[in-house]
UniProtKB/TrEMBL annotation, chains A, B:
<keyword id="KW-0805">Transcription regulation</keyword>
<dbReference type="InterPro" id="IPR014710">
    <property type="entry name" value="RmlC-like_jellyroll"/>
</dbReference>
<protein>
    <submittedName>
        <fullName>Crp/Fnr family transcriptional regulator</fullName>
    </submittedName>
</protein>
<keyword id="KW-0804">Transcription</keyword>
<keyword id="KW-0238">DNA-binding</keyword>
<dbReference type="InterPro" id="IPR012318">
    <property type="entry name" value="HTH_CRP"/>
</dbReference>
<dbReference type="InterPro" id="IPR000595">
    <property type="entry name" value="cNMP-bd_dom"/>
</dbReference>
<dbReference type="InterPro" id="IPR018490">
    <property type="entry name" value="cNMP-bd_dom_sf"/>
</dbReference>
<feature type="domain" description="HTH crp-type">
    <location>
        <begin position="148"/>
        <end position="221"/>
    </location>
</feature>
<dbReference type="Pfam" id="PF00027">
    <property type="entry name" value="cNMP_binding"/>
</dbReference>
<dbReference type="InterPro" id="IPR050397">
    <property type="entry name" value="Env_Response_Regulators"/>
</dbReference>
<feature type="domain" description="Cyclic nucleotide-binding">
    <location>
        <begin position="14"/>
        <end position="134"/>
    </location>
</feature>
<dbReference type="InterPro" id="IPR036390">
    <property type="entry name" value="WH_DNA-bd_sf"/>
</dbReference>
<dbReference type="Pfam" id="PF13545">
    <property type="entry name" value="HTH_Crp_2"/>
</dbReference>
<dbReference type="InterPro" id="IPR036388">
    <property type="entry name" value="WH-like_DNA-bd_sf"/>
</dbReference>
Length: 229, 229
DNA sequence: CGACTAATTGATTTGCTTCAAATATCGTGG
DNA sequence: CCACGATATTTGAAGCAAATCAATTAGTCG
């Protein structure tokens, strides 16, 4: 297992400050897997029998409602885990996981993962904390969805993405993976039309610079002001 | 500690099938506390230093946004825990907890609770599962808030409440604690006006029977149909 | 160069909020 | 026991944010 993998595992909040030997143990038990852009890693409703950590690339978690409409629940970056809570609970996956770009993941069968938890009990403590962090995030998103207008929610979504997946460029902070107006709409409970109009207005005002599947934040403070007010 | 307490603890998913001696240990470490209706148990932003289980009554968890608008995140019934995730993460409470009716809770200081977890490791396993269940619930609510119309969301909220706090009456299933139009609005991201109009229409159609701070579900199937379509 | 996917942009509609006021219900103290 | 203040609910009217409808245009890729 190459050193790069261990450093990425170290970044995962689930494995955080475990000793290097433990990380090696964990990495060795996992199966690395290459993913092409658009590939579905697991499907909503599938039995949750695998735990995943992203090594490279970007993955989105999308929930589909009975009527076919979709909501993007989160974007995953390197070092983050997904599928794990469902697997540990012996529940079906509550959403699809789809590679947004070409990616590399490490996956474990849930029984192997439980064995790792037994050998490294710290993982158990972290898993509650990790679920807790996401719980709080989701609670905030619910409050936001309940009370804020669409433009604010789009501003927040773009800020969050720039935060977690920002790459500095001469023009500003660029979201470092391709994202469509449709996906931003599915993150914010809006429509691609409204997102398009909103980004167009922001581009006009010099707050953002957007193009096909690309968004650059030029004026973070202005966006933050949109999100707050 | 009276037997009634132990049976209630048994109902808590966190303590589920622990042996009776363990439950007695847990109950003995906790401080019982009587709450009057409307009393605030902890406040959003307070350091999370206590874990709580409800013994009797009903508690609501309410998040307030910077602009003062509120969102009701959940209603707690006997046997359910609250505040625990924040406490275990050494995080401030992300929301207020307020007794809706006269209630009785059992509370632990977080260090005592951690000690209980050490003595009864099963609690740790359960805590992840418990956080996971709520995680999934919240994800569903986000999808719903993102894509459904207000009437559907109100229908879902009423169904959920009838499910978790339903008391059978001659007329149908009554939500067994007082709930205002305002609170239903804060659960669904709507306004008390819209909730009032919606309930009035349902009452008219014989689907519900509502009064001041009371809601009775007379035709569950019809409500379910509203939620689905 | 097509075929496809993504984005834009105008016109129209609508579900829901907001504004405004009246009415109903409850608890409480005189 | 009734009056009165506080809380909760109803209902109408107006306004608006954002969805929907409807084309058109712009990139991208094989």
């Amino acid at each position: 297992m190459p050193i790069a993998d261990l450093n990425l595992l170290r970044r995962a909040e689930m494995f955080g400050s475990l000793p290097t030997e433990a990380l090696a143990d964990i990495a060795a038990a996992g199966l690395p897997r290459r993913l092409v852009a658009g590939e579905r890693i697991f499907a909503q409703g599938d039995p949750g029998v695998t735990c995943h950590t992203l090594m490279e690339g970007r993955v989105k978690i999308v929930q589909t409602l009975p009527d076919g409409t979709q909501a993007v629940l989160r974007f995953i970056g390197p070092g983050e885990m997904y599928g794990t809570v469902a697997a540990l609970m012996d529940q079906p996956f509550p959403a699809d996981a789809i590679a947004v770009t070409e990616s590399v993941e490490l996956r474990w069968g849930v029984s192997n993962f439980r064995e790792l938890m037994r050998r490294h009990p710290e993982i158990g403590v972290r898993s509650t904390a990790s679920a807790g962090t996401r719980l709080f995030d989701l609670q905030n998103r619910i409050s936001e969805l309940s009370t804020e207008r669409v433009e604010q929610r789009i501003a927040r979504a773009v800020l969050r993405l720039a935060e977690q997946a920002g790459r500095p460029t001469p023009q500003g902070t660029e979201i470092d993976f391709p994202i469509t107006r449709q996906e931003l709409a599915e993150m914010t409970g809006s429509t691609l039309h409204t997102v398009s109009r909103t980004l167009a207005a922001w581009d006009q005002a010099g707050v953002t610079a957007s193009a096909r599947r690309r968004v650059i934040v030029r004026d973070r403070a202005a966006l933050q002001a949109m999100a707050d007010h």
